[in-house]
TrEMBL record:
It comes from the Bacteria. It is a multi-pass membrane protein. PANTHER family: INNER MEMBRANE PROTEIN YGAZ. This is Transporter. Keywords: Cell membrane, Membrane, Transmembrane, Transmembrane helix, Transport. Pfam families: AzlC. It comes from Hypericibacter adhaerens. Belongs to the AzlC family. GO terms for cellular component: plasma membrane.
Amino acid sequence: MLGLWHILPLEVGLVPFGLLMGALAAQKGFGPVEMMLMSGTVFAGASQFVALDMWRDPIPMLTIVATTAMINLRHVMMGAAMQPAMGRFNRFQAPLALFLMADEIWAMAMRRAGRGRLTPAYYFGLATFFYLSWVFWTGLGTVVGAIIRDPARYGFDFAFTAVFLILIVGLWRGRRSIAPLAASAIVALAAHAWLPGVWYIVLGGAAGVLAAALSTPEPS
């Protein structure tokens, strides 16, 4: 229950984000069932947004798969960072935990791990409700999409940015957080300006991880 309680504030950002996703999917011809199936099996907002943006007839399947796989490469780094804190997860719980590892859930889990032991009960309290909420709100978004023809008019498009600003604040650890955040931002902006596609996501994440590793003092 503690994990459920801690994830509730992020639900505020998830609702408009999910509705926006569903509204965009409705413009591509998705119905509630198709959208909920996509959200339930993919469960990766950034990848779903990119896939919907590229969705057309005929569907460029290989391009969508390659692009979304590149975006989700950050999950490899996220999983590696969380693995040392998963000592209490058994062989069945660990794969399920990684499947449910969205950015928000990972951030909350790492915050918990930094303050004590990360337990399966806490993690799945975070993840299960967040997962079901995402599936529900994206499905509902396809229904209201016909009503909200221009989601940006109501500021729904800012939900994605707002959620990640909240995550950054929650993970702030003082001066030692400056180098990873600065490196990630600078590299991501440069890659976005100079490289095609979504390389800025992968390179920005890798730069942040590298900067964190280099700026962490070795134990004496």
